[in-house]
Structures are given as C-alpha cells and as structure tokens.
Amino acid sequence: MKWKRKTRPTNGTTGDRKIIHIDMDAFFASVEQRDDPELRGKPVAVGGSKMRGVVAAASYEARVFGVRSAMPSVTAKRLCPQLIFVKGNFEKYHKVSNQIREIFLSYTDLVEPLSLDEAYLDVTDPKRGPASATLIAKAIRREILETTQLTASAGVSFNKFLAKVASDINKPNGMKVITREEAPAFLAALPVKDFHGVGKVTAARLEKMGFRTGADLMSLTELEIALRFGKMGRRLYSIVNALDDRPVNPTRNRKSVGAERTFSENIDTRHAMREKLNFLSEKVFSYLKEKNNYGRTVTLKMKSPEFVTHTRSRSFAGEIRSLATLRETAHSLLDENIEEVPVVRLLGLSVSNLEREGLGGHQLLLPFEEE
C-alpha cells in the first residue's frame, strides 16, 4: 500500500497514520459453529430462544434470512423457521478474544478494543513485521485463523473512519484498503446511511434534506454544515473531507459496566425480581472488583412484556465499593418503580461514572443469556 506523505506530523511521525480495523466474522456464532460440527453450515443464533429473548449474534447462514443481532427471538424465528438457538458462553468468547488481542499486541501497543470481536490498530511504527499496513493486516488475519480457526475481516486506511467502513465492505473473511488518493471518490459515493456513527434517524433526516451521499455533503463549507447540523455537522464535515484525526487510543474508557437478562417467562413478583437483581449485582460487582474500578451511579433497566424499556438511576458522592450497597440500591430502585412496571421480561443493572481509566473496552460477559 502506498501512503502519501503529509507535512503535518501525526502520531509522532511525519506521514499518514496506518490504521487497521479488525472485525471478527459473526464472532459468537462462529465460535459455536467451530466447536460444534453439527452447527456448521446452518443458521445459528446465539442467545434468546424460540419465543423469548434477544439475538446476541447470528451466523451468516442466518443473516441470509434477515436475522440480525439485537432482534427479538420471536422475530428471528419467524424470518428463519429452521433457526437454531444456542445459549451464549461468554467466558469462552472472552478467552478467544484474549488470544486475538495477543496477536494484535505482538504487532503494536496501540490497540483500541471496541468490543470482544473488533479493534483499531495503529501500525505506523510496528513492533514486528513489514512496514506495509496491508501486509500486516493480511498477516494478522492469517495468524487469527491459525490460532483460533476463525476468520476476520480488515479495513486499512489512514484514519479510523475509513478503516472502520472498509472492514465491512468485503465481509466475511475479506479485506479492503482505502488510500488517501482513493478516499475522495470513495467518500463521495458513500451513502450517508453507511456513515459509521450516523444513526437511522439522522440518516433519514439527511436524506429528507437532499443529502444522500458524501458528494452532497462535500458541497457545504464547514460553517454551512455546522450551522445546519450543529455538533454532528462538524463531525460530518471531518468525515466527508477525510479529516478524521482521532488517534488510536489504547486506554479507551468504558463509560459503564452492566449486565442484563431476558427471562424465559415474565416475572411478576417483587421477590423474584429481587432474586434476579441479586444475581446481576454479584456479576457486575465481581467485574468492578476484578478491575479495581468502581463507579458512583447505579442504573436499573426494566423492560415490560410490551417491550417498553424503563430506566432509573441513583448517584452517590463516592464510589460504591461494596456488594451490599450495590444490591440494596438495586432493590430500592426496584421498589420505587415496581408499580409502574409490575411485570418484566428483562432486568438489567449497570454502574457508571467510573473512578478511573483502565477497563480498556472489555465487554462484560453476561448480556443476552437466558434463565
């Protein structure tokens, strides 16, 4: 890959950054298919069940039918009647993720995990391997396959936005490189709905105003786009003009740590809800204690059988450093809101306003499992 040099130093060098975005292919589902030959080549959903819960991940065989993560299980089953539901094993996924992380760190210390299955890497000055980011990305994908028997897709470019978008273009098990010379034409043709970080509502608003592709946004000056779209406008200007200067941050903060459960049957008693919250409290506190990083705000999440989500929070002057306090706070929030949500299909508990940096983007290993 050829890199056009810039005069402005970036990341301690005199040229463009070399950014790789690695994204595992259908990670949770692929791990399950790897470990159970009976699942290979079949539509698989991790998490949920035929009638309850939410899909945590879907195999590519399931995606053909429109099954996606975060989709209610009943919808997924309707789209794909032959769908096989598998209970998630997040301890196993975490172990595989650590294997992948070790491969990343053998090439660079500048690794910014986004979740268990994806990360940014800055290989401008790699610890080993060739100087080419393209060749490093190929080597990393090859080592991941050899170590885990799983495939990964990669995007390579000079900024994070382009690397992220590129990694999705040739999925699964593919790679895309976007050079500085190619960036203007690529961004001009990119639909705004495919801009990473632009949600459905914003994309619909942009399209309604006549901004359907990057080329439409390129016609605006920075002032014009800022006046039209505020803070989001400045980000759009940066993205569409290839000015995304965000560095890869290996100490990326986690804003909160939480866990949630969707239940096989609705829960309609205070006692049963408290028992579930006790379990969630133990899991969340165990993670905080392991990282020695506590928070000041507790948030309770309650989802009704009608899929209406209610959240209630309580903040403290100092960090919550005991399981008993976390559990009692969860119970108190429940007691104060149980009349509003007397029946739940899901309960969640999270702690935010964390004390310090250092969780590094790790994912708490409980969401989407059923009881």
From TrEMBL:
<protein>
    <recommendedName>
        <fullName>DNA polymerase IV</fullName>
        <ecNumber>2.7.7.7</ecNumber>
    </recommendedName>
</protein>
<keyword id="KW-0234">DNA repair</keyword>
<comment type="similarity">
    <text>Belongs to the DNA polymerase type-Y family.</text>
</comment>
<comment type="function">
    <text>Poorly processive, error-prone DNA polymerase involved in untargeted mutagenesis. Copies undamaged DNA at stalled replication forks, which arise in vivo from mismatched or misaligned primer ends. These misaligned primers can be extended by PolIV. Exhibits no 3'-5' exonuclease (proofreading) activity. May be involved in translesional synthesis, in conjunction with the beta clamp from PolIII.</text>
</comment>
<keyword id="KW-0515">Mutator protein</keyword>
<dbReference type="GO" id="GO:0006281">
    <property type="term" value="P:DNA repair"/>
</dbReference>
<dbReference type="GO" id="GO:0009432">
    <property type="term" value="P:SOS response"/>
</dbReference>
<dbReference type="GO" id="GO:0006261">
    <property type="term" value="P:DNA-templated DNA replication"/>
</dbReference>
<dbReference type="GO" id="GO:0003887">
    <property type="term" value="F:DNA-directed DNA polymerase activity"/>
</dbReference>
<dbReference type="InterPro" id="IPR036775">
    <property type="entry name" value="DNA_pol_Y-fam_lit_finger_sf"/>
</dbReference>
<dbReference type="InterPro" id="IPR022880">
    <property type="entry name" value="DNApol_IV"/>
</dbReference>
<dbReference type="InterPro" id="IPR050116">
    <property type="entry name" value="DNA_polymerase-Y"/>
</dbReference>
<dbReference type="GO" id="GO:0042276">
    <property type="term" value="P:error-prone translesion synthesis"/>
</dbReference>
<dbReference type="InterPro" id="IPR017961">
    <property type="entry name" value="DNA_pol_Y-fam_little_finger"/>
</dbReference>
<keyword id="KW-0460">Magnesium</keyword>
<dbReference type="InterPro" id="IPR024728">
    <property type="entry name" value="PolY_HhH_motif"/>
</dbReference>
<dbReference type="Pfam" id="PF11798">
    <property type="entry name" value="IMS_HHH"/>
</dbReference>
<feature type="active site">
    <location>
        <position position="118"/>
    </location>
</feature>
<keyword id="KW-0479">Metal-binding</keyword>
<dbReference type="InterPro" id="IPR001126">
    <property type="entry name" value="UmuC"/>
</dbReference>
<dbReference type="Pfam" id="PF00817">
    <property type="entry name" value="IMS"/>
</dbReference>
<keyword id="KW-0808">Transferase</keyword>
<keyword id="KW-0548">Nucleotidyltransferase</keyword>
<feature type="site" description="Substrate discrimination">
    <location>
        <position position="28"/>
    </location>
</feature>
<comment type="subunit">
    <text>Monomer.</text>
</comment>
<feature type="binding site">
    <location>
        <position position="117"/>
    </location>
    <ligand>
        <name>Mg(2+)</name>
    </ligand>
</feature>
<keyword id="KW-0227">DNA damage</keyword>
<dbReference type="Pfam" id="PF11799">
    <property type="entry name" value="IMS_C"/>
</dbReference>
<feature type="domain" description="UmuC">
    <location>
        <begin position="19"/>
        <end position="199"/>
    </location>
</feature>
<dbReference type="GO" id="GO:0003684">
    <property type="term" value="F:damaged DNA binding"/>
</dbReference>
<dbReference type="InterPro" id="IPR043128">
    <property type="entry name" value="Rev_trsase/Diguanyl_cyclase"/>
</dbReference>
<feature type="binding site">
    <location>
        <position position="23"/>
    </location>
    <ligand>
        <name>Mg(2+)</name>
    </ligand>
</feature>
<dbReference type="InterPro" id="IPR043502">
    <property type="entry name" value="DNA/RNA_pol_sf"/>
</dbReference>
<dbReference type="GO" id="GO:0005829">
    <property type="term" value="C:cytosol"/>
</dbReference>
<keyword id="KW-0239">DNA-directed DNA polymerase</keyword>
<dbReference type="GO" id="GO:0000287">
    <property type="term" value="F:magnesium ion binding"/>
</dbReference>
<keyword id="KW-0963">Cytoplasm</keyword>
<keyword id="KW-0238">DNA-binding</keyword>
<keyword id="KW-0235">DNA replication</keyword>
